[in-house]
Amino acid sequence: MTRAFRPTDLAEALRLLADVDLGARPIAGCTDLLVSKTAVGWSPAAVVDLLRLEELRGVRREGERIDVGAAVTFAELRADPLVRQHLPILAEAAATVGAWQVQNRATLGGNLANASPAGDSLPVLAALGAELQLATADGERRVAYDDFHLAYRRTALLPGELIVRVRLPVPAPDAVGAFKKVGTRAASAISKVVVAFAARAGGGVLREVRLAAGSVAPTPLRLRAAERVLEGSAPDATAADAASSAARGAVQPIDDVRSTAAYREWVLGRVVRRMVLEVGEARTRAGTAAG
Amino acid sequence: MREPYTMRGPPVPFLLASPMTPLPESDTPAPLGNATAPASGSVGARPTRPDGAGKVDGSAVYVDDLAVEGAWHGATLRSERPRARFTLDTSALTDREVVCLTAADVPGTNRIALIADDWPVLADGEARHVGEALALVAAPTRAEARAAVAELRVAYEDLPAEVDLDDALAGSARELAACAVEHGDVVSGLAQAAHVLEATYETAHQEHAYIEPQGMIAVPHDDGSVEVIGSLQCPYYVHHALVALLGCEAEGVRVRQAVTGGGFGGKEDYPDMIAAHAVLLAARAGRPVKVIYDRREDMLATTRRHPSRVRHKTGVDADGKLLAVEIEVLLDGGAYTTLSPVVLSRAVLHAAGPYACPNVRIRGRVLATNTATNGAFRGFGAPQSQFAAERQMDRVAREVGVDPLTIRERNAYRPGDVTPTGQVLGASTSAHACLAEAERRTGFRERWKALEGERAAARDDGRPRGGIGLSLCWHGVGFTGNGERRMDSPVAVRLAPGGRLVVLAASTDIGQGTQTVLAQIAAEAAGVPFEAVALAPADTAVVPDSGPTVASRTVMVVGGILARAAAELARRVREHAPGESFAAAADAWLAERGELEVVERYADDGTVFDEATYRGDAYAVHGWGADVVEVSVDPDTLVTRAERATLVCDVGKAIHPLLCAGQVEGGSLQAFGWGHLEAARLRDGRLEQDSFSTYTIPTSLDAPAMETVLLEHPGGSGPLGAKGVGEIPMDGGAPALLAAIENAVGISAARIPATPEVLFEARERGASDE
Amino acid sequence: MSERSTFRLNGREVVYEGDPLARLLDVLREAQGLTGTKEGCGEGECGSCSVLLEGAVVCSCLVPVLQVDGREVLTIEGLASDGAHGALGEVLVREGGVQCGACTPGVVVTLRALLERDPAPSRAAVREALAGNLCRCTGYEGILRAVAALVGGEESA
Ligand SMILES: Cc1cc2nc3c(=O)[nH]c(=O)nc-3n(C[C@H](O)[C@H](O)[C@H](O)COP(=O)(O)OP(=O)(O)OC[C@H]3O[C@@H](n4cnc5c(N)ncnc54)[C@H](O)[C@@H]3O)c2cc1C
Ligand code: FES
Ligand code: FES
Prior knowledge:
Chain A is α+β, with helices and mostly antiparallel strands.
């Protein structure tokens, strides 16, 4: 029978996870784990509950960063004042995960470690330039989110390593952003395509553009060709169309149980285009209002 | 006649007396509780449903909630292949505390007795669909039973499979059923037409997705009889199947319904199968056995709605009046016949829609495929064929250059019109009233035109596009043709002390409120308060076979018979002690004359139908409905949101308006789900969407705001002219939704569910007017 | 070896010994005999297994029992026995929010959590809160009607 550990400090958790003979697996909200458990009869030698670790909880501001605990749930994220104020697209994404029951349990760290290409927070973390604070019993390290998802359902996590916190730069005052999830229904839906966009738009041109999408490749993907197209451009129809084509050219989506490759590619292009146009329109409106 | 059934198989390790935990209120009738209705005359009022309190506080007992002393759990080994010869190796289970059954252990012909006896209890050497039962295991716990199944080894030798209609048409095209309707002269009708339009429409599988998965408990008794308790719609179907399977007398089987968590047709046919499995396991194990499906198993193995392909060729005059329609209905029946002939018959009889046409030819066929058997599902074929009819009507309107309401007004049936079977429609034919009410409530015609204009002028600004769509449908109430006459349907009312009445009918409450409306009907007919009526449990040892709870027949057919029985009982009681209160008269009767029970049966209503030629009165009466659906479609994603729905439905007489509205709302949302959300695709003969994660039924955020308008055009034999409301809500939702999508973005999808992918493909193929 | 989890269930302390990964749902239904909590899918999709864990609505099919150690769990049975249940239960029945009842305990649990947070939720708020409770019978309209009637608010889309 599985052994259960419920440590209350991180060092203890890491020590347990480092014990190769124990063969313990970390568990958080279990919204991924227990689904697969029911399907295949998962029965690890031991589990380590992460939900009692203070070090993995809470959202706080540290200088120019917002620092989010890995065990923070999506319900907490969507309601958090710091997140809502500075990282609205992360709050938006959190609000689209599952439904209320799932949001009360599912954690940001679980979404990262589960490494599904459809994880809704992941393109947002890419677009916001997140950095992950990881730890093993041997010490800590920091990894850029961009270097975390290596291949289909594979991450940079080492054996016994935990995601402790997710650190996100506080966006500049002229930052713009957008999030769009195209799911299988209005709520409680898995993404067919999910896109996040962040940039600075001061002076009427886009800079520091970061655009990422999920469910269009084996891992969540930065759409770098589209970013290049947009970098230094005004958010107008020409740029939007060019970014849209570049985005479509960069992905190889698949037909699966939730959608088709053709639709996914098309809708990705449409969403990217719309995001750029809406940034442009918002700028125009803001300009009109100010002038 | 075979020998009476006795327990078979080797003795079990230890035998328990297995006392049953009784179902609450099992043999004593349930009191109907606090009525908010007027003391009598409660038809048309809204008395509180008696089963409500136990459902909101969690005390209602569903089959999986029953704790049965000493029960083992059953699990099923299922085919992984759409068609294969197979051999089983069960040696892993030797010397284990389990029982394991294969086809060789099934008594008699190894068939479930339904319409055609071709449905094996366990596949015998050849599997004909993914998910077909190959072997059964029972073990002390559910986990052990599932683990034991996982240890069984199957060797498959694949055979060529036909998994959909394309395969079947290109291959063996084996017919499970066929029928045809012929009226007038289609060839000359088409020759006179100003416009002739041809198109083909398709609908996909639909899962019932009742929230309580199927399950059954079988309890063997010492006298050799067996008792079955389960989640089911039709206790006598299960009874019939088990008596045939076991070759025993009727008394050898007792079937009881537990509180049942939704059915929609899905618990009409398949419970026969689960009951058979549970009974065989229980007999072998010599103890009660509980077989409860989990969601995936339920989705894999149980029945679904028949996929359809319907071809229309329609001839109209310059004004769009129908001159001739030629329709071919093709249904995918799955691997076995089960109820396909009846589903087809209803599909064919509704295929021309609620429209008068002098020349009609409808041909229907059900083809076999190597997929799980398709079966009964709310609407029973009519939603499929009317989806096609309604979309074709919209196409005709565009061709002729009129709006969708006008084309329907020009063609919809009126009293006295003749249907394709030659039935003369009665005075309660309310198609025009439904259309007029829908127009009055929504201003459909002007809004549709305005939105057509907006679409033509729309800029690519990302704003959601609005659309509005209309449908008109009819639905025959009760069994098709002579079905009711064959059923006979005895319903009894028994007198109880204090002037209480007990209703004995086999109609089940699966959520729709049967208990409540039947009590209202009896109260009204007998002139007693609603609270004075109780319903006997749906238990074959207690109630007579008043027929299955299907075909929207409960209120009209069973209710009509019940009203006569209740009225007759009340008449006798009152005449026995004139001038006394009913309660006093009842007590006087019971004291002086003993028991009183009145049984009434189906009374010939003069309808005549020839099942060979499909001529005559196909249904005693029809319900009518018009739906208006408003959508918004995101032009960037082609995601459709159903925003509002106005659902006009002629129910004849609303016995309980709130429960009627519940049928309309719930049925309509199922129709909208079928129309655009519930993607169901096969891959290698396996339904890809096999869980609630991938098979996406509507959530509260997918549901439109619904306004239900009940019209009352009494007709038929039901109490006060009630016509039934169970199924018609399933007919109109999908075509109205697709019409609204077309109005919004100009994409006319000929296939449902019209997911964004389907709309995208339709537009890419140029099936668009943009 | 067997693992022990101790938690408060509907106000009383209970101890579970056995597989720590056992689903809270099974512990409630089988070990505790509380069958008001239903299993509709076992995958977190349908919400019919909803319970309150430390006051938050969660799917008990996705909670391993080890995680409720030291925590407070309220099921439909616990909620139905307190003073707030009567009016909600009654209005759900009266307005057509209950048909087959398979979803109903979960719906009640979710609504209780919602009403705790927002005593007069708008129609939009109720729709959002209920998105994780699938109901195949009512089309949700009856449930929304019931909440509107309970809070006495105007129906607003
Ligand atoms: C009904 C339902 C709907 C869903 N809808 C969505 C949706 O819309 N969008 C979406 O993105 N996801 C969705 N999910 C998936 C799931 O909820 C998320 O992926 C969630 O974020 C997982 O978090 P968890 O805490 O539940 O992870 P768990 O299931 O506890 O763990 C998942 C994996 O992560 C590991 N892990 C967890 N935390 C850490 C950590 N701090 N460090 C290292 N490893 C860790 C675990 O060992 C495990 O391998 C849904 C799931 C369900 C059941
Ligand atoms: S059973 Fe838990 S969500 Fe369906
Ligand atoms: S009442 Fe049946 S599922 Fe909701």
